[in-house]
Amino acid sequence: MKENEPRKIAFPRYAEYNCAIKYILEQGLGAKCIVPPKLTRRTLELGARYSPDYACTPFKTLLGSMIECLEAGADTLMMVYGLCKLGYYGELEEQILRDLGYEFDFLNLAVYDTGKKRDFLKAAKFVNPRFSIRKLALAAMDAFRMAEYLDEVTGELYQNCGFQVRPGGYEAAYQTFLNALYAADTKAEIEVAHQAVKRAFLEIPIEKPVRPLRVGIVGEFYTAMDEFSNLEVEKKLSGMGVEIHRWMTVTNRMIHYPGEKNLNVKIRDLSQYEMGPTSTANIWAARQYAERGFDGLMHIKSANCTPEIDVMPALQAIAQQNRIPILFLTFDSQSSDTGLMTRLEAFYDMIQMRRKVIQ
Ligand code: SF4
């Protein structure tokens, strides 16, 4: 990195939240953000080639994505962390990349998560030693709003796109919305993008039954939200004429999270302790869907994800208590579209037959 030039900073791709992270880095910290390239089979193959075999699939995807960021010209990588083994991933992935011969600066956010304000400021200073706290705070608020809009609009998309009269209308409006968020430099532009997509959605004709089939999705934080990692499962299932609901979003899990203690009240018979970063929330959300009369549940996780393996018996119990089908899906670098479609079609037939029987 040349002196007095902004860092060219990148981070591993994460669903479509990249636009919000880009916004904070550029508008809040004055860096130049290299938006991570879209995830492809190449990304995953690259990551899998250099990862320990037993690592969970997000480890491999994140590593592959970081390699592609460096190839795209990033001189600095930023790595997130989490409450599971993701907390150690930054250290390990940095070492793998250096052993491969890449040169870069590395901002491992796990190192700065001490709960102390001064350590948080150190991380910001790493990106730009002359950053303004006020600018950063304002940009963070806009970025949170961006993530909330993204989750709201994505939710609306998968609740309705399976019922549109002419295929493609929802998807086109959604893509225009995403393009606008990635290009947004101001709060006003974020608001305009949000209003425009809401208007566009309203104009799309749909034919939806009074009681459509509804499926509630729960699952691991990365795999459930990232459509590349779950082989676009929401798109595939909604395309069969199903209304999809997914509680696990950045808005619910990070921005407005009510906390384990309060969620645990309703699931104490199944789980008394938090077993991982999303276990309490997933068990709680599954029970909500079942009690609200949903037609099916789906649990999405990555291979080698210990916390979500622990959740499965509790979900099984919810399914039995409420007589609701549940489909467990595990994704790894070998997962294929064909295998997924077969399971989705069988699941769809099951929830459709069940509806006929209980009607
Ligand atoms: S929650 Fe599971 S899949 Fe996600 S990073 Fe942690 S161990 Fe890996």
Distance between the termini: 65 Å
Q: Beta fraction of the residues? A: 5-15%
Arrangement of strands in the largest sheet: 2-1-3-4
Main beta sheet strand tally, sense and closure: 4 strands, parallel
Walk me through what this model shows.
The protein is α/β, with parallel strands linked by helices and 359 residues long. The protein has three domains: 8-131, Rossmann fold, CATH 3.40.50; 144-208; 210-359, 3-Layer(aba) Sandwich (Rossmann fold), CATH 3.40.50. Helices cover 55% and strands 11% of the residues. The protein has 16 helices and eight strands. It has helices at 18-28, 41-50, 57-71, 86-99, 109-112, 117-127, 133-160, 169-183, 187-202, 221-225, 233-238, 250-255, 260-264, 279-291, 306-322, 337-358, and strands at residues 8-10, 32-33, 76-79, 105-108, 213-219, 242-246, 296-302, 326-331. Strands 2-1-3-4 form a four-stranded parallel sheet, with helices on both faces. β1 (8-10), α1 and β2 (32-33) form a beta-alpha-beta unit. α1 (18-28) runs parallel beside α8 (169-183), α7 packs parallel to α9 (187-202) and α14 packs parallel to α15. The chain is globular and about 70 Å long. 43% of the residues are buried. The model has no long low-confidence stretch (mean pLDDT 95). The structure holds iron/sulfur cluster. Iron/sulfur cluster (SF4) binds at residues 56, 58, 82, 84-86, 220-222, 277, 302, 305-308.
